Amino acid sequence: MRTLLRSGAAILLSAALAGCAGAPGVAGSTSNAKLVQGPPISDIVTPFDKALTCLNGRIARPLVFSVGAVLDQTGKESFTDGGVGKFVTQGAGDMIQSALFKAGATVVNRRDPRVMTTEAEWRIRDTSRQIPSSFYITGSINSLDFIPGSGAEVEVAGVGGRYRQNRILVGLDLAMTDANSGLIVANVPLQKQIFSSEAGIGVGRFIGDQLTNVDFGGREREAIHFALRQMLNLSTFELLTQVMKAENFADCRLFVDRAHGYVDNTKTAQAVDAMEKAKASARAVGAPPPGAPPARPVASAAAPPGVGMGTRSGVPATAPAAGRAEKPYPGASGAFAGASGGKAETELSDQAKAQAILTQ
């Protein structure tokens, strides 16, 4: 009888092993293993995409943006005991480039110049025909701090529950630089806490003289690199809007959902607040709000035809753009010297004119 039981157990074990051979990832030596099909591929959507796409069409096409080095300077990595290597993404610059493209900006590739330089060395490409950058973005992911967590565990009569949580603090700094002068025209620091938690319940009971334990639990954690992409998208939006007039981006800023992120202590927040206060003051006195088109001057009865009020020597009050001194865009420390030194300060270089377009 004992021999019969052993034979039956061996048969069952063999059948189980044969069944495992047909399981996903397991196959015979002469056949391919069946691949597991997971969730479908999808495009990446962040809570700040609407704010970026809202800027599409509001950024002058002559302005050209590029992305320089956006480095991982956290110094955190792990390669032993099943470590994951670098803790944060090494492709932050490519994420910023995607954010610029989503905002409708004119973007040139400075992420990998190897094709261009190779073709230049082969004398089949003239590098002087490459489009120069008006602005470029650089920065770093420079902090990654593991915040000690906390938790609790209670067990009564063999039945208990547990809960624990931990956090990781990630910080970055980005800057946008005027490629013509080297002046930093926009800067933004951001940080985010990455949240993780674990919860479970366990039950222990004696069944006869045997102790039986049953445990249920789960863990969850925000995806670090997706959180970084959200930070980079929000920071790109902030950099672009820091060199725009408040009335040109205030409605786009409303798409920034405070449940996912906010920038309340930056130049854009101050500019929007100042604009709202100015509008409130204008409404109180009945004046046109900021950004409204100026009223057309009423011609005087004694004035010659074609000459309105507020003119001098027959010159219209609204002179052509070429005859006016453009104001530097918000964030500039003063008028640009221009590329043709020696001329009057009121004359702008082509680069400065292009920068002025961004504020219109």
Highest-level CATH class of the domain at 41-145 and 172-189 and 225-292 and 321-358: Alpha Beta
CATH architecture of the domain at 41-145 and 172-189 and 225-292 and 321-358: 3-Layer(aba) Sandwich
Distance between the termini: 95 Å
Largest sheet: 6 strands, mixed
Q: Share of helix among residues?
A: 25-40%
Strand content: 25-35%
- As residue ranges, the low-confidence spans are 298-348
> Based on CA inertia axes, which overall geometry fits?
extended
**Strand segment tally:** 8
Radius of gyration equals 32 Å
One letter per element, helices H and strands E, the order comes to HHEEEHEHEEEEHHHH
Mean pLDDT equals 79
User: How do the strands of the widest beta sheet line up side by side?
Assistant: 4-1-5-6-7-8
Total of helices: 8
CATH overall fold name of the domain at 41-145 and 172-189 and 225-292 and 321-358: Rossmann fold
- What structural class is derived from the secondary structure elements? alpha/beta
Note the topology.
Elements: H1 2-21, H2 49-54, E1 64-72, E2 77-78, E3 85-86, H3 92-102, E4 106-107, H4 114-121, E5 135-156, E6 159-178, E7 184-207, E8 210-221, H5 224-241, H6 246-253, H7 267-285, H8 350-358
Parallel strand pairs: 1-4, 1-5
Antiparallel strand pairs: 2-3, 5-6, 6-7, 7-8
What does this structure look like?
β6 and β7 form a beta hairpin. It is extended, with a radius of gyration of 32 Å. α3 (92-102) packs across α5 (224-241). The protein has a domain at 41-145 and 172-189 and 225-292 and 321-358: Rossmann fold. 28% of the residues lie in helices and 26% in strands. The protein has helices at residues 2-21, 49-54, 92-102, 114-121, 224-241, 246-253, 267-285, 350-358, and strands spanning 64-72, 77-78, 85-86, 106-107, 135-156, 159-178, 184-207, 210-221. The chain is an alpha/beta fold. The relative contact order is 0.11.
